[in-house]
Amino acid sequence: MNRDDFAILKEQVHGRPLVYLDNAATSQKPRQVVEAIVEAYSTWNSNIHRGVHHLSQVATAHHEEARKAVASFINARSSDEIVFTKGTTDSLNALAFSFGEAFIHEGDEIIVSGVEHHSNIVPWQMLCARKKAVLKHVPLREDLTFDMEAFESMLSERAKIVSVAQVSNVLGIIQPVEQIIRLAHERRIPVCIDGAQSVPHMPVDVQELDCDFLAFSGHKMYAPTGIGVLYGKREWLEKLPPHEGGGEMIEHVRWEGTSYNELPYKFEAGTPNFVGSYALHKALDYIQAVGWEAIEAHERELTEYCERQLLEMGCIVYGAGQPKAGVISFNVPSALQTIIHPFDIGTLLDQQGVAVRTGHHCAEPLIDYLGVPGTVRVSFGLYNEKNDVDAFIAALKKAKLMLF
Hints:
- By secondary structure, the protein is of the alpha/beta class.
- The radius of gyration is 22 Å and the shape is globular.
- Helix 2 crosses helix 9 (274-290).
- It starts with 11 loop residues before the first strand and ends with a helix.
- The protein has a 7-stranded mixed beta sheet with strand order 4-10-9-8-7-5-6, sandwiched between helices.
- The longest helix is centred in the first third of the chain and has 21 residues, at 54-74.
- Helix content is 39%, strand content 17%.
- The chain folds into 2 domains: 32-288, Aspartate Aminotransferase, domain 2, CATH 3.40.640.10; 292-403, Alpha-Beta Complex (Aspartate Aminotransferase, domain 1).
């Protein structure tokens, strides 16, 4: 990895060198991805799957090669199991609608975990309201980890699907999805994995996990915004109805009725983001060139290094000591035995060129459980260095002095 590939890291904020520690929200893009976008619009931009002319054929080939690259990246059995979406939220909404139409009835139960992002809560709530079903969440243990005993007790005949984040976007804690999937499958309950915070930071093998669905976003893994993936086992995707209608997803349209396209196209209505898929392919190539072993070791070292210093400062680190995937949430105690508001910390860090995320991180139920107005979150990418952590800690110490 060459840090010079990421031009934005040379920018200055308020006259200070940028220290970007907000990767859980979105990652920066390497030169190779930016150049891919320019190349696509400059040399072969054309609608795909519809044209016999040269540009359309080239665009189609790039789009389908990207689908194959995604399938290989997560070790899907076939590229037919890869549905391109706008991102994790779009993927989960599509799944909730389609699965709900086919398999959810009044009184059925849907199970999520206690750390979920709103995108893995609200679509299921909407489904439950529509179908008069029940959404249940697995409680957290005192150390903020997944309560496996409680989960197992919830796996009744009424439970129809489990949908959990592999990595909490607030805590960074890696959830035991292997065991979750195994227990659910023993009762023939399908499992969806929200991989938004895991796929960019660790190898995810859908066949090894045996998950039924996996959702993730390109923009958190060095690709552009507006491109994402819903993986589904073929046997499930064949059973699910499409969630949107229009061009591309049809086989034939007659006034008497419509027949749908084959997989995966029946879930891809309209003109797809073929430029985004091409750039995503370049981002996957970039990650694989760096290598998972190097990425995991580097990000683990940064996370542990940062957490250790936060604890030495007396900060409250949520889920301290638990295995994390590049994300740390913390608060700074005040002199009045409360906490300094995260927004105040984030504002003062920004004035020193340090970009972090503050607030509820689109996980209000978890923040309510923690009993705080929000947290300060630092999150790492493959381009971050110890110098970034040092600059962040120095800025945090200065902010703390200013607020006491």
